[in-house]
Amino acid sequence: MSIQFDRVASVLFLAIGVLFIIGSKNLASSSYGSAVGPDIFPLILGSILVLLSIRLFYETIIIKNKNSSKEKIQYKPFLIIFTATLIYILTLETIGYVITTFLFLFVCFQTMERTKWMTSLIISASFSGLVYFLYVEILKGTLPGWPVWFS
Known about the structure:
Layout: H1 3-25, H2 40-62, H3 75-95, H4 97-112, H5 117-138
Helix pairs in contact: 1-2, 3-4, 4-5
């Protein structure tokens, strides 16, 4: 990527992270039947996004452009991941967390590196199952479960 693109992206992600943090403050701190409120994840994710965007901006200032030639921006992987994200958002409630997260991660991993499909399959399944178990069973939170036609 180009340093200019990274700099602009870091400022954009910083703004999005701050909006996540502000938006999480407007959510209720607890929900019925849940020990973990709906404000926790957006707050944590917003904080992580802010920290990572600050690091990216810092790296663009420090790193000198070693290679003066411009890289070609890859639109196809971006569009695939963007479309997968939209589909993930639209189907999360109806299909459930585990299945949609597994499919989303698998598509994203395969978009980034097509040769390791078995590794992508294992990591996607492990991550979606583990996060669901930790959040629902250990933290007593609520996530969209399995689809009605699956149970």
